[in-house]
Amino acid sequence: GMAQAALGAAGLHFDELNKLRVLEPGVAEQTAQLREECRDFLGKIVEFQKIVGSLIELVDQLAKAAESEKMKAIGARNLLKSIAKQREAQEQQLQALISEKKIQLERYRIEYETLCKIEADQNEFIDQFIFQK
Q1: Alpha-helical regions (H) of the chain
Q2: 2: which residues sit within 8 A by CB, 6+ positions away?
Q3: What residues contact 22, with CB distance under 8 A and at least 6 apart?
Q4: What is the pLDDT of residue 16?
Q5: Which residues pair with 14 in a beta bridge?
Q6: What is the Cα–Cα distance from 24 to 10, expressed in whole angstroms?
Q7: Which domain holds residue 29?
Q8: How far is Cα 86 from Cα 78, in angstroms, rounded to an integer?
């Protein structure tokens, strides 16, 4: 007992296998337990990093998909705008054509009226000529 006490005072201890140790068996056990807990904790940290990594990857993919959909939407909107512009241009062309045809129609109407008047004048002249005879 005294030898053990003297060794204990010098900071030396026997473990359960009667090996000489610098640490008290209780402290040595706690140290081993702490080492094990640290190892577990590190394992959990690594696992957590993996999860965070795959989450970041997923968010990246979603962002890319969203960007791609946005581009598709912009493309579709631009297409609709250009179609609308084409329609507008066609409508203007048709309106111009209608105006042109209306002017032409008016010219023909005036020409027809003039011809009718000439015909009436000529008929009157023919009638007078016949009655004079």
Answers
A1: 2-9, 25-132
A2: none
A3: 11, 12, 13
A4: 63
A5: 20
A6: 11
A7: 2-131
A8: 12
Q: What are phi and psi of 21, to 5 degrees?
A: -125, 155
Q: What is the pLDDT of residues 47-96, one digit of tens each?
A: 999 999 999 999 999 999 999 999 999 999 999 999 999 999 999 999 99
- Determine the Cα–Cα distance for residues 102 and 104; give it in Å rounded to an integer: 5
Amino acid symbol at 66: A
| Sign of the alpha-carbon torsion through 114, 119, 120, 121 | positive
Instruction: Say how many domains are in the chain.
Output: 1
What's the pLDDT score for residue 29? 80
pLDDT score, position 96: 97
Please tell me the distance from the alpha carbon of residue 117 to that of residue 110, in angstroms, as a whole number.
Answer: 11
Smallest CA-to-CA distance from 24 within 39, 2, 3, 9 is with 9
Measured in degrees and rounded to the nearest 5, phi and psi for residue 64 equal -65, -45
Q: How confident is residue 45, by pLDDT bands cut at 50, 70 and 90?
A: very high
Reading the block at residue 63, the tokens are 């962002």
Amino acid, single-letter form, for residue 128: Q
